[in-house]
Amino acid sequence: MFEMEGIEDGPASGINAALPLILAEAETLYGERKPGYEDVRVEFRDSGAPCVEFRPGGATIYVRSEISDTPREAFCECAHEVIHLLSPHYYGADVRTGSVLEEGLATHFQAKIYQEWPVPTTEPFNPPPEFEHYRQAWMLVESLLTLKPDAIREIRNVKATIGLIEEADIVTAVRGISPDLAKALVRPLETLKQELQQRGQDDKD
Ligand SMILES: [Zn+2]
After folding, report:
1. CB 133 within 8 A of CB 200
2. What is the pLDDT of residue 127?
3. What is residue 175's three-state secondary structure?
4. Ligand 1 center to residue 84 CA distance, Å?
5. C-alpha 32 to ligand 1 mean position (Å)
6. Comparing C-alpha atoms, which of 119, 88, 148 is closest to residue 8?
7. Domain residue spans in the chain?
8. pLDDT range class, residue 97, cuts 50, 70, 90
9. What is the Å distance from ligand 1's center to 205 Cα?
10. What's the pLDDT at 166?
11. Cα-to-centroid distance, 81 and ligand 1 (Å)
12. C-beta of residue 41 within 8 angstroms of C-beta of residue 60
């Protein structure tokens, strides 16, 4: 538990004060972040989805301005992006999102921060993402963490960069995991999204 100092000075100062704590929580749970991106800050912006942009030596997390006066939602969005900061890695041009494992973990962590952190809230907010592919990725990561609560740390001992983790790395680190789950976790989230869209299309036909 911690006191949210600075929240009265405006949302940007409040969330920037909390960022080191969110990062520390992520590192405790999921292993240390890769060096080289130490200078991290959060900014609000008016358009675009939340994201993280890297620059030499650091990164900026962008959170949507529309939720800047609801700190709990802003923290939740920020927490998702913090997972992408643990082991930055540039995806190939044809892969627009991270793996199911990385996005599912980011979604798991955002829900966790939402539920557990004592930050003020002014609006009810439904932490599960509206997007079905994120929700399914999250549930797959929940299955992994149920099987082995420190699975992410163990897998990252085999391979530190979350976005590069392969099926064999998971099988090595998590004894007894089903090959189907390991396989599902390492797919690009985009593939899962397209599959769900196709399935929705087939249901209509
Ligand atoms: Zn993400």
Report:
1. no
2. 47
3. coil
4. 7
5. 18
6. 119
7. 7-204
8. low
9. 31
10. 96
11. 6
12. yes
Distance (Å) of CA 20 to CA 63, 78, 122: 16, 11, 23
CA of 49 to the centre of ligand 1 (A): 10
Amino acid at 106: A
**For 141-178, b where at least 16 C-beta lie within 10 A, e where not — what string?**
beebbeebeebbbbbbeebbebbebebebbbbbbeebe
Q: Is the pLDDT of residue 112 over 80?
A: yes
| Residue 80 alpha carbon to ligand 1 centre in Å | 6
Q: 56 alpha carbon to ligand 1 midpoint, in Å? A: 21
Take residue 100 and report the two structure tokens written for it: 């199911």
Cα distances from 127 to residues 83, 97, 112, 115, in angstroms, run: 16, 20, 9, 8
Instruction: For residue 5, report the distance from its CA to the centre of ligand 1, in Å.
Output: 28
Q: Which position has the token pair 């709990």?
A: 72
Output the CA–CA distances (angstroms, integers) from residue 44 to 49, 50, 56, 128, 168, in the order listed: 11, 9, 21, 21, 39
